[in-house]
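Lab notebook, bench 4. Still working through the backlog of constructs that have no structural model yet. Next entry is a single chain of 143 residues. Request: give me the structure tokens for it.
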Amino acid sequence: MTLSILYCLTAGSAITDILKNKIFNKWLLLGGLAGMINCFAGKETGRSLTEIIIQAALITMILLPVYLVKGIGGGDLKLFTVISIFLPMGEMIGCLLGSFVIGAFMGIIKIIITGEPKQTIHFAVPIMISIILVTRSSALICM
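Model written out:
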């Protein structure tokens, strides 16, 4: 169930990022609330509420400088913070690193195709791909 919620959260964020060029705060709030309810319902094993809050704050502090230099958008920062509710720290770090590697690869491909050196990408897409890779699950089968 936790992965189903996480996949829906990241897929919805990627879709709105592509179509509207933003990730909606209400969508992220809904995902965060679903993650917290899942935690309180006992579905999240091995982590206390305090650990989840500390991890979310740590992820935000790590990514804040990247946001300030316009490396990622505010929606991407908030999406990573909400994702940290669902994933343990090891998987979260893997997701961060994977997202930046995938995003760099997508940016290089876009530079090659367009010939323009300054490019932006919809970063929710690499985040979604890294979530699938880190959790080693299929996005089409949520069990």
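Notes after review: The chain has one domain: 2-134. Residues 89-114 form the longest helix (26 residues). Flag for follow-up if needed.
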